[in-house]
Specification:
Blueprint lengths: L18 H9 L4 H9 L9 H8 L13 E2 L18 H7 L3 E2 L7 H10 L38 H18 L8 H6 L1
Parallel strand pairs: 1-2
Main location: membrane
Subcellular location: Membrane
Keywords: Glycoprotein, Glycosyltransferase, Membrane, Transferase
Length: 190
Amino acid sequence: MSVECFPFPAGSPWVILSRSFLEFCIFGWDNLPRTLLMYFTNVKLSQEGYFHSVICNAPEFKNTTVNADLRYMIWDNPPKMEPLFLNVSVYDQMVESGAAFARQFEVGDPVLDMIDKKILKRGRNRAVPGAWCLGRRSWWVDPCSQWGEDVNVLKPGPQAKKLEDSVSNLLDDWSSHTNQCVTADEEIQD
């Protein structure tokens, strides 16, 4: 088996992987994960291709991919190695995108405070309040200064509902396709 016979899709270095797929990569009941690992050892930015190539070349996992980054980014034209830094001027676009994550930000940029205040409802130098926070909310009292007995209690807020809807839409779109594995060559042809 030679690596020349494999298509090599590339994508985001941030991936969510299933347990069964990771077990396949670790235990490799066929030699594919190991073969591709040896190849990707010598590839620049291998994190943008290794898992993508394994999953798209393994018949039992090929149709389990969902092509969505869940991140809001703005790129130069033509794209450079890193996306542009996000700031207050793109805050509305970022929120309207519905993306669960965004990158990249300058350290201490005011847009981070806007995200904390408007989206996460987090006070300055405080934790993001959750259902475990029992303290009274005011500008001088941290609602998380008093905790309930169970800090693991989870009560989804409006942003969790938006994320649920977004992921649900992705999965609906995914179920209508038979193959989400797209190589760079195929992407150019579309």
